[in-house]
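DOMAIN: structural biology
WANTED: fold as tokens
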Amino acid sequence: MGNVEDYVYVLGDWDADGLVSSALVKYSQESLGLYPLSGKYVVKAAPTTSRNLGRVLRDISRCPKALVLLDLPYVRGLEHGLRRFKKVCRDTFIIYVDHHISTFDNVGKLEKCVNSILINPSPTTRIVYEKIRSLGGRVTPRLEAFAKVITYMDEGVKVPSSLEKIGELVIEISKALAVAKDETLWLELLEWLSEKSLIPRKSVTKILSKVSELAKKLDKEVKEIALDLSMSAKNVGYVKYVRLKKKDNAISSTVLASKIYYILKSTIALRVPKRGYDLLIIKGRKGVPYRMAIKLRDLGVIEDIGGHESLIVAKLKGGVDDSVLEIALREASLPYRMSS
């Protein structure tokens, strides 16, 4: 390997932001010939996570002309996988687009192993959309609507009534992908979102029906668990602290945190055990989780911070037990005692 081939490889996060930003890149490259490369190239894509990125890159058998990484927050060691890939695919142009706190914190490390980096507090979808617009490109009304809704939701702004149906669909897609982690479904949605024709394929109805069924299934399962966990919530400073004793891999931790938040109507911090480490998920009103995460990072209890202004996902550092975490949560929540 080493010589590049005429295709673009896109790796996006599993969530709606990763999916829609991937669809924008696919449409821009295949239909407009604008971004990331000038000229029309075939785009291949796949969903992944930051922690699985190294493995996915090792499995690439043909070096792409460009590799685009979307909505993947920096995690410790991520740059090592990129360096290994770059040694094999020396001429591949690597583009990294993201908006997470951990990426801002480690931009210097990333700059050494990618060719172009676009980071901005806005959701990745918005960053890609604005990039295409800056090059004179226009996307389909469907893609534009999805891009707007992703931005509204990520920024904690109410979705306008004219886009409510799209907003409901985005929520269902997020839930369906969270519960299923189905690569085929992710790719089917990608194809639908990025297709040039506004006349939907017959298979779209079946795809969206599957999305709706999965979302309803997740809602039912999560509601029962969230109600039980809400009863065990502990007041720590001005947040409700909840500890999940055993991780259920079939349940999305972020969806669970959101459900607990809506039940308790207060900022919540959910500790989730994973294999070899714990996650801390903070859900609250716009801006509160983000600012709390910055304080918790400065206090030395969390790292690898992802998420957005109203929902944060971070890795707890080794050795941070409940007593240490509760002290830190109490300090981090003090400025937000009137927030929920």
Remarks:
- Residues 232-336 form a domain with the Diaminopimelate Epimerase; Chain A, domain 1 fold (CATH 3.10.310.30).
- The chain has two domains: 5-169+180-203, 232-336.
- The CA atoms of residues 45 and 268 lie 35 Å apart.
- The two ends are 53 Å apart (CA to CA).
